[in-house]
Amino acid sequence: MTSLMILLAEVGIGLGIAELGAALGAGLAAMAAGMGIGRIGATAMEAIARQPEAAGDIRSNMIVSAALIEGVAFFAVIICALILFI
Description:
This protein is 88% helix and 0% strand. 6% of the residues are buried. The protein is an all-alpha fold.
């Protein structure tokens, strides 16, 4: 992505397009993470309803999966913020 910014700056287009892309990327990353975590929660609740005796295992797997998705989304938002401010 940095090479794209350098290329855009050299061509003369400026960083306006790169800033717009970074802002859209951060928004998409946040929305996709929210949708993914919501889907994990919904399927976990369905699984617990089907097998209440496995609630502890399902809950722990749900928390680990949600944390991994949130970590990736946070990483994407930070990368987009770096593109905006550097």
